[in-house]
Fold these 3 entries.
Entry 1:
Amino acid sequence: MDSWLQILVLVACITPAVVQGRVRNYTFNVVMKNTTRLCSSKPIVTVNGMFPGPTLYAREDDTVLVRVSNRVKYNVTIHWHGIRQLRSGWADGPAYITQCPIQPGQSYVYNFTITGQRGTLLWHAHILWLRATLHGAIVILPKRGVPYPFPKPHKEVVVVLGEWWKSDTEAVIKQAIKSGLAPNVSDAHTINGHPGPISNCPSQGGFTLPVESGKRYMLRIINAALNEELFFKIAGHQLTIVEVDATYVKPFKTDTIVIAPGQTTNALISADQSSGKYLVAASPFMDSPITVDNVTATATLHYSGTLAATSTTLTKTPPQNATAVANNFINSLRSLNSKIYPAKVPLTVDHNLLFTVGLGINPCPSCKAGNGSRVVASMNNVTFVMPTTALLQAHFFNISGVFTSDFPGNPPTTFNYTGSPPTNLRTTSGTKVYRLRYNSTVQLVLQDTGIIAPENHPIHLHGFNFFAVGKGLGNYNPKVDQKNFNLVDPVERNTIGVPSGGWVAIRFRADNPGVWFMHCHLEIHTTWGLKMAFLVDNGKGPNESLLPPPSDLPKC
């Protein structure tokens, strides 16, 4: 009996250490910082005075506590993009969806546990256009003693891609909303906060990536841009892709990646070329007749021992509309689907949904620049109206009148989505959610429309990863297209590009109770209303139920 007791005591002592990771505390002070880029200065919103912001490091199973103190004039929230937030929706961060914003002078502790995830993600503001400068990396290391399923790199480097406006970005979007038209595009792209030398500001330096000949490096690449998908390549070097959106993929080699806002890509690079300096380039991908910032951001891969005066080996960036280059990358992505990291694709479907994503035109008498109209965006022709009470609070406390649960599961009007647009380009508006039973399975086809212009829309789903089981051009045809779905090893992501003039099909299991935002990660489209939310009901018992809100949850 004594020996059994000793064993039980021993197990009780050991078990928490096995199950739980450590607690990691971070302090994020949101402050203004005067910053110079493109030979001109402006105050920007930052975390701890850094641009990009600090990298948040943790391991799988760790609990993370981030105290965010708001010391600027704007309301603030932070979203931990791609973190599952199992039962902890209060820490997800989108303003008026899971929380009221942190008001000036106030603070809030985001408290979440990283369960079953490892890899590269990002954090960013989720209110107004503050994420233009309020963003940074999340690096989740595997549990101690668990190796990567690929050769271990000599060193890891975070590479954050972004956009820079000479103007105040809040003024840019305010002016666009007033006019009813699209906002001014950015003035430059950035690599780790630096555009690199450009023609009208040749003196500014760029980011330098030092390497030693013969060593292997892992780049944790993040697109934190507001409105632009980007190509990324390094002169003379191949990239081996091993992970996207914090999920392992079957490794493949490429010289060019395409990465949408909100997406991440881990790439191995071997310093196997002649010693020297090699250009690193981030340039825009846009295969629609839509204006983008066409300035390429540059950095330098610098072999140790190379003299500063050595000329840099250049690379040719893909054409802006290089759909084939983008597709070559996207079509190469497959889940690792190993014994340790299986692809748990739902094989049966409880909810078969089709959402159109695209633009529209609504009347706006005050929009003189738009001739009395404004551009809007919608899903299933519903332009989402932001509430003034957070949806998660309204759900948890049964507050009526904040939202309705009648978001349509299919387009209210059927038309030739990618063909000639209908005569009426108006949308309806409302604060609507789509309700899901706990643990039900969802197949969602996201269908682009040609209204105004067909366009690639990177759609991000909060609270879940999903499997991209199929994609195609034109209108989705369930009878034909479903036969070609990949249900074995489709890539698992949290943000997916809906192809310009096409569709993408995703599947996920609704195993996370709460209210989960889904929206286009092109910030202008989110502003225009291309967003909705899924409400996932509690399951059985406390382990399948949303936790109660923390005591310091901000008030509206």
Note: The longest helix spans residues 2-19.
Entry 2:
Amino acid sequence: MAPSLTTLGKLPVVRCRLLQRYEHQPFVSCLAGLYGCQWRRYQRTRAMPGDCCCSKLECASFALLIVTFCLTLVFLYFWSEAQNDYNDFDWFNFGNLGFWFPWSVVLLVIAAAFFSYVTLLLLLAVCLLSEGQKLYLHWGHKIGVLVSLAFSILAIAVLSDLCSKEWTTLLLSFQVTAPYLHVGGVLLMTLLSWPIALHFYDINRKVGQALIMGLYLAVLCALYLVPLGMYSPCLKEESTLGLAPALIGHRGAPMLAPENTLMSFEKAVEAGGQGLETDVTISYDGVPFLMHDHTLRRTTNVQEVFPDRTDAPAAMFTWGELETLNAGAWFLHRDPFGTAWSLGTEDRAQAQNQSVCTFRDFLELASQRGKQVIFDLYRPPKGHPYRDTWITRTLEVIQNESSIQSHQVLWLPSDLRSLVQQLDPDLQHTSASRAPVEELQQNHIVQLNLHYSSMSAEMIIEYAAANISTNLYVISQLWLYSLAWCTGAQSVTTNALQFLNNLNRPLFLMTPDEYNLMWVLTDVVSFTIIFIIFIFHWWREQRLAFFSGSKPTLEHGTYIKFRTDVWSVSSVNILGEPARSPLATEPNLATVSEH
């Protein structure tokens, strides 16, 4: 008997489905091989409609994979935004371990590697689910995921204890990155709508459909509405943006020369620094000199010259002893910022021969270049001849031994401030702590010197109204400097003068209307695409159900009819003769698929 028109009409559909099935085979083999080392087809199992996508163990593994992805992402973002303080972290480890190593960069590379690995596994899992395959994560990957998870948890716990202020830095970073994170999150959820729509229509149980759709819509709506709670001082009209904060060289230009040396301060002036910051210690014989640490071990060769006094307080050395030390070779050897390679031959030779700098020479340089200075002053330890007169000795150098003008000096030490104001009323008194405006005015404070983590536009505006300027330290990243610019800070202390001085505009500056347009447009486009994807899968479901007369099955990411339906079509050939039985042809199909 000749085949009917209905049967003939089904043939192209069946042929299309079979071709799609075989064309997807290499792709599925690659996915399963990378995810579960299941390179051959007989090793894999297809998920039937209504069935769970994997066993209980594999469900737990997939859930663990998602948790690990989230934690590795959080740590990677946390540590990448902490780059501003990498130098402090590395020197902290130097003080505890006794040797220099760029731990911060190594930690960042490891975090990026773990995140990339877990992201790849998660992407493979989503693709396998989209292709209708049951998940099986290879035991080697299970171990890798556990190691990634353990690393992220341990790193977050340890760094939260050592660098608790970095969480404040992370929150500050959202004021710059939140608009871009919002767009990225919406884009990710839009891409996930395709596999989610596939499984939504493939699940028979209403509870499963409600669970998947409810969770997806909850996350999607949260992302859509996140901008409502976003705050950023960089959302303003450009006409209201103030002047760029003045740059103060932190210990000079420590990326271009050894810190607290004359060469470092000269480089800071050349790089456009409007002020110079340093740390002052008084030698045993009463000579104020520049040294940040309480010992000489980190920035001099004291271990070679005075091996028995490596850990002795720097203030317990005489100036004659300090003059014999080299204060520059360490910079080329350890290269703390990874910038020593940029120095020319002359600069390298100059850095190699730097010595400990006196406070008087520092003030003379600032006076000649017309720069303001700010410094921390360390009180000598017990038993030091100048322990009780360290303030007056420092004032003697400013007033009698250098040509600097008192108004160029931002006096930061809080000890004996009333006495200092009596001895030299022209000094610009600076406070390192926040206090009510009335209290600051009573103490004649004209500037605040605060850590950047306390950055607040409201605070800066309040103090500026009382003619009290705000300096933020230490800011060396472009995004942090942009944020300080938008908040209205008058100056910042930085390690990266050569980079910040070239920034002509904040990295992120947008008017509220522009941001609202970007936000609404992103959400509308995303919702439209997601709606079209779900409508498409619904239409496809209805169309395939019409052709097969039964519920379609998802296999290898394409909708095909039950095998019995395929054989019912192929059992009658064009000549009307019966074909071979399905049992006889099934192995041939497997063979063709394998090839």
Note: Residues 248-501 form a domain with the TIM Barrel fold (CATH 3.20.20.190).
Entry 3:
Amino acid sequence: MATQVKNTNMLSLEMNRTGQGIFPNHIPSDMLVQVGEAKFPLHKLMLVAKSNHIRNLVVESGVPDLGRIDLSDIPGGAEIFEKVARFCYGVNFEITVNNVAALHCAAEYLQMTDDYCDGNLTSRTYGFLAEVTLKSLSGAIIVLKSCEDLLPVAEQLNIVNQCVEVASAKACDEANFPSRSPPNWWTEEPSILHVTFFQKFIDSMKSRSAKAFTIADAITTYAKRSLPDLMRNHSINGIKSPVSNHSSTSIINQRELVESIVALFPIENQQVVFSISFLCCLLRTAIFLETNDNCKKQIEKRISVILDQVTVDDLVALSYTFDGERLCDMESVRRIVTGFVEKEKSVKVFNCGEFKTIPSPAIFRVAKTVDAYLAAIARTAELSVSKFNGIANLMPKNARQVDDDLYRAIDRYLQAHPNLDEIEREKVCSSMDPLKLSIEGRVHSSQNKRLPLQIVLHTLYYDQLEIRSGQSTPIAQSMRLQVQSDVLLAKENEKLRSELFKMKMYISDMQKNQVGATSSKPKKMKKPTLFSSVSKTLGKLNPFRNGSKDTSNIDDGIHHTQLRKRRFSIS
């Protein structure tokens, strides 16, 4: 802005004239100009010399001494007309980015063009617009802001369109190639605009193929600045209603503002461009201001896409009034969770999977958040059984690995509603599976007097099954180990049996050879040897003939000559 101020001062110096050009004050005025409530006693000659419009008024009036004209329709009002009159009198004044649009519109209104008088006000203001204000994002936005009170003249003179095009082009450049930090500093500039001009700004950015994230940043900043009380905090702890003392007109204006902001959302199905916190704040504001259904559903649809990022506080804030004293709405939460579950199902079908088998990690996170949400609102007096179950049953059964969080919410609800009968308590517990409780949960529920008897019995029965299963498992493992040991022992026995059989055959062959040698020399007795003694000893160890200690009983298919039993001794 330093360069702009310098240029402004230079332009002001060019417009400055010497005191000789100023009409003497001692000459009485001959024309009274009425601008709204303000009156300007001026001189007809000075005005007619610069303004063709005033000249036409004087001529068309048919009164040579016309002494009064009404210029209440002049753009910018009395403040701008005073500067125009200074220009007509040659008195110095300053053109700035804040008043250049109004001065240009007033100059066009008064027909102060160069065709009528050289170096007139129109060319001066247009040159300032082109050379100073439309060279930067800030200058274009400030001029655009000033045009809000100059409609429709500013649009007819193309000032609005020029400012919008320059501002959107500069914003896109800054978004792609930041010139300062933080990178999104530029989003603060258009946030001062009226929503009508902000819509034009966003539409122009879209026409330049701006990224969805870029547009989302601008919308987020604009919403937070335009609705500071509603978007500042969504906690339910002791916040006073931000518009409790406002008129119905103010609420209507804010409602239209929220609907206009939501209508600007970029259509981007594949990307998440808004944060979950911002969407929840905006939805809460839409619920509070009672916007149309389409507006709320658009926000809910975007929340359901990223529901796995939501916190418990976000969901709780959607259900309560701003003071946190009353549960006002649960339908939005129900639609959001339903939309998320349907999305997960469609993703499974698209990937040729089955939703009931392996839920995604996102649905586990959402189920945990929903159970915590139920626990947070369980103590609310106006929460009915049907509403509680309506939220609890939205999640599929396989979305919860354990039902401890849901059990905690049910226990809190039963504690806060002690007057429920047995049937109503069973309805509350119908969404929980007692078999999916952890050991700690089953121990607690088996001693919980608030639970219906049927649930307690289910829990105790499952505990007995667990106990039995826990006792049989070590026995089964011991039996498997015993079988493995028996198999190894049988293999070792079979190996030993085979070795003994080979030894038996070897001994039998040796005995056959010994019998043949004895029959050829009957008269000569062979002296017993060490080997024969060993063979007899091994024969006594024969395990194959019913415990017999004589190897001669082995039937090997060979006919032997029966030898006379002799007594041998080992020397």
Note: The chain is about 60% helix and 0% strand.
